[in-house]
Amino acid sequence: MYKEISSVSNQTYKKIKALQTKKGRAQFSAFAAEGIKSVCDALAAKAPVLCIAVSEAFRACNPQLMAYFSQQVSGIYVVSDKIFGGLCDAQAPQGVLCTVAIGPVGAPADIIDKRRGLWVYCDRISDPGNAGTVVRTADAAGAGGVIFSQGCADIYSPKAVRSAMGSLCHIPVLTECGAEVLAAFGEKGFRVAAGALSDQASDYRKADLRGDMVIVIGSEANGVSDEVMGRCDCAVKIPILGSAESLNASVAAGILIYEWVRNQTAPH
């Protein structure tokens, strides 16, 4: 029923391990999701799971999960405990991971009408933990999807996948998108609001964030680029009341995302 892997020279082992790198993910159009929750979330979301790999110890201790996995996926590999850790990025792996196909999401114009409401555009966010957290927060808020510009962290890297906590399988994620993608949203009636600290930006608590909208979150170091800002309809700022220079990008995203949620029912 299960296929055994006992050597690092095994071709399947090499393929799974390659997914730890951006080059490998591009070559095989897939990413790896580690841990029980991530694997179960991918299966529950009917994501295109290619295979599941477990350690010998995991198989011995989790017969019910193994039976469940067998019902969902035909390719299940039991990897020797001695080499399973080599497939994982996490420092304390749980003994299970799955590989998921990265399929084409489609052009923005083709999916906007199907997923109206809120979208988030990440402009050169370089930290994979922040990138994954933005996806997770957008998913929690019921957003239509998340867009990553060129220069952003690879959303399918191990750290980003862990931070997203399964949300990559729940909402569309567009990658390597230039500022011109915002025009497609504008043509569909979306407004675009950038998070910024400039004097021209209005307090986010006083801004009208109702209706179809794209919220733009800038890079941790430099904020929203001039090119992207030129595509925005307005700018909003989160007041800094203490001595910190700015907020973490994913924290700022969470505040603005849930302010949009509040605006949908708040009286104006």
Say which CATH homologous superfamily of the largest domain is assigned.
Answer: SPOUT methyltransferase, trefoil knot domain
Q: What is the strand arrangement across the widest sheet?
A: 8-7-6-11-9-12-10
Radius of gyration equals: 20 Å
CATH topology name of the largest domain, in short, is: Alpha/beta knot
N-to-C SSE string, H for helix and E for strand: EHHEHEHHEHEHEHEHEHEEEHEH
Tell me the CATH architecture of the largest domain: 3-Layer(aba) Sandwich
Write the layout of secondary structure elements.
Elements: E1 3-5, H1 11-18, H2 22-28, E2 30-34, H3 36-44, E3 49-55, H4 56-61, H5 63-72, E4 76-79, H6 81-84, E5 96-101, H7 108-111, E6 118-122, H8 128-140, E7 145-149, H9 158-164, E8 173-177, H10 181-187, E9 191-195, E10 202-203, E11 213-217, H11 226-229, E12 234-237, H12 249-263
Parallel strand pairs: 1-4, 3-4, 6-7, 6-11, 7-8, 9-11, 9-12, 10-12
Antiparallel strand pairs: 2-5, 3-5
Helix pairs in contact: 8-9, 8-12
